[in-house]
Amino acid sequence: MMPAFEYEALDLGGRSKKGVLSAESQRQARQELRRMKLTPLRLSAPRSEKKSGAFGAEKPRVKPGQLVMMTRQLSALIGAGTPLEEALSAVAVQSESGPARTRMIAVRERVMEGWRFADALGEDEKSFPALYRAVIAAGETSGDLGGVLDRLASMLEKNRAIKNKAVASMIYPLALMVIAGGVVTALMVFVVPKIIDQFNSFNAELPLLTKIVVGLSNWTVSYGLFALLLIAVLAAAFWRAMKQPGFKLAVDRFMLKVPVLGRLSRAVDGARFARTLATLFSGGAPLLDSLVGAQRTISNSYIRSRLDRTVTMVGEGASLAAAIKRADVLPPMLTHMIAAGERAGALSELLDKAALQLEEEFDTASTVALRLLEPAIIVAMGGAVLVIVLSILMPILRINTLAVG
Question: Where does residue 209 rank: exposed (0-12), middle (13-18), buried (19+ CB within 10 A)?
């Protein structure tokens, strides 16, 4: 494969042009530019290309945000009639120096050698997942690569938005819990012992509530660090156990039964499944292949395992709606929309509508859950502080009563 060179040159009108071209040497690259009636100003190999091969194992993967932007740019260029090689070159030039530019240059070289676009992307499976390549392969087969890339970019944006929404929705409650735990721990470790020492100097009998708080305070001072270490060890063990398919399957199945979390999990996976299936199917992929691709995007392993039977039933000739209903793991609304889509011959359109409704359901459910969780954490923190304050005030009132008597 000939090396790629980035260039900056002037055309006959004095306008600056940037791009990428392939040549065996810089000298040949300059000759090619002059043949194109361009005056070279700068000609160099990409810095990331100089260090190692185009798809070196040590190179970082393309970030999800960059992948969405590159896909959207390609869809716009190809939809406007730009040849694939020129579109890849333009996206490479517009990308920031780093993995994204390196990948696009390498993919362009493969395409110029006669490779299919999807096969060229397959040389870097970490940056371009199997599902991404499958959608592009379907677009190449159908002859509507620009439209498929546009739908693929929309799917990536929606899936990324759902993931970011799920992560962002947990940040504030977790931060609130950490702060509340830190405040209560500080009171138990630094404040309560000093105040109780003052009460002990009077040799007065402490109330039961105060004795309980003092006991918890002493335990926290003596064993709090060991408790934190134990929690860290258990968390690490749980994280490792989640890599075991059997354990993860059991945990995911249990999570679906948790009232609020189960509903949110079904909505998120249902929306992702519906949007991916619509993108693949509308891009020209067979229904069975589209179903397998959409199944891969589901994060809950129990839902994914139940859909194995769905794939088998569809392969045997059953309707998609009946097969999904038999699995009984996705939201019922999705099953009804699929059935309506099959009857009307508009499966892709109704899948998109189902995905939108499930995303709205997720937004609504997560918002309600957060509005209930936040005051619950505040009330719990206030209750803990109230107990500590009462445990301090009760001995003071008792001492005052004895002094008056």
Answer: middle
pLDDT in tens, 258-299: 888 888 888 888 888 888 888 888 877 788 888 888 888 888
Strand order in the sheet with 16-22: 16-22, 4-10, 39-44
The contacts of residue 12 (CB under 8 Å, 6+ apart) are 37
Express each pLDDT in 337-392 by its tens digit: 999 999 988 888 898 898 888 888 888 887 787 788 888 888 888 898 888 888 88
Instruction: Evaluate whether 256 touches 302 at the Cβ level (below 8 Å).
Output: yes
* Burial status of residue 98 (CB atoms within 10 A of its CB: 0-12, 13-18, 19 or more): middle
Q: Are strands 4-10 and 39-44 parallel, antiparallel or unpaired?
A: antiparallel
pLDDT at 403: 55
144 Cβ neighbours under 8 A, 6+ residues apart: 283, 284
Spell out the residues 6+ positions from residue 99 whose beta carbon is closer than 8 angstroms to its own.
48, 59, 60, 61, 62, 63, 66, 127
For 24, the 3-state DSSP assignment is coil
